[in-house]
């Protein structure tokens, strides 16, 4: 009985780890029944490491954040082959979004990854949002709902589970939950009309998983964040919306909840709220055992009903079983290479105001190199590399946040900014660059401010293909080069 209880506790955990090779403690935990794990770019994720995991536990749920755009783990050093959600929402072609989702699913199927922690089903209703932004399909519920469904259908059509996040909606926040607890001050009526429709649509489409958001929503529960709230996780998501798939937390080391309770206590409270799987983005053998032991102790003391733990573990195993049954879909997806869909989508999303074809290799000034915590710090905008391929001799200067512009010479100047609409200092920098060089070309990879410069290009996201689409236009003055 004790061994079974420890195994149940391990089944509901999804830890991450440091390093490029699987640590011995993680392999041992998999052999003891660890139900899942999450991969990051730091792990050099791919089929080889996953095969090692599956040798220890064939049923483990291997998860990853592969949203496309700025949030990629498999293509972080080259940039994603797919534009992010905002770009897809700008194009607003659900068939194209489903094709992109299918190719992301295909990539994960190649690596034998069970679960994609995507898409973001958040409605980015607040332009000042520091953590969602271009990760959202857009600012309206209908747009986000239809593209969430298309993305889910694409990924799951390739035999990989999708995960709609961050329930009940992280779009109307001005705080990054990696750093502090955001509060969503909206009425139940506004939440029902604005934030919940994409999740309702994803559930109707058969999404296999949903991720909770670390959000305080007083209209739903004024006492605790959504992840720890039975009112939100069970009464709303399970009861009112009818979701019966696997519910996973956002990473519990995020400061929105980590400052409240120890990891083991967070896990117990989340399980009691109705969550099935606990994501621990960075774990060690000691911390994994501490969380496992806290869950076991809570069951033994009666704080956590054993039936609730068994139910949670059952949902994890159901998702694993679903994945095992999709082998034919994954095999079909591997043969269905839609090689240029990412670039096709990026070109369609590119928004251009003005005209300024480069006459030679430019000086590229990257103005805003500070991204939020969801984006791997190794991620590059890719604009310089894409321009260098077309115009050899292109040079890059990276400014520190709120730094000074470098001196300009006679070369063409390309100013690369991100989320100018959110940063007054970025807008001031753009204005100064335009004053000094009216022929400057401005490329915004995020939520843009009003157009400035001789040419103003908006990629609506950071990816290798988005950079290529912008570079083609700058070098030739026309879409697609």
Describe this structure in words.
Helix content is 41%, strand content 11%. With 481 residues, it is an alpha/beta fold. The chain folds into two domains: 2-334, Glycoside hydrolase, family 3, N-terminal domain (TIM Barrel, Alpha-Beta Barrel); 350-476, Rossmann fold (3-Layer(aba) Sandwich), CATH 3.40.50. A six-stranded parallel sheet has the order 2-3-4-5-6-7. Helix 9 links the parallel strand 6 (209-212) and strand 7 (246-248). The longest helix is centred in the middle third of the chain and has 19 residues, at 306-324. The chain is globular and about 75 Å long. The model has no long low-confidence stretch (mean pLDDT 95).
Keywords, separated by commas or semicolons:
Rossmann fold; 481 residues; 6-stranded parallel beta sheet; 6-stranded mixed beta sheet; TIM Barrel; alpha/beta; 14 strands
Percent helix among the residues? 40-55%
Amino-to-carboxy terminus distance: 66 Å
Q: What is the count of DSSP helices, taking H or I runs of 4+ residues? A: 18
Radius of gyration: 23 Å
Query: Could you say what the CATH architecture of the largest domain is?
Result: Alpha-Beta Barrel
CATH homologous superfamily annotation of the largest domain: Glycoside hydrolase, family 3, N-terminal domain
Strands of the widest sheet, in order across it, are: 2-3-4-5-6-7
SS elements, strand count: 14
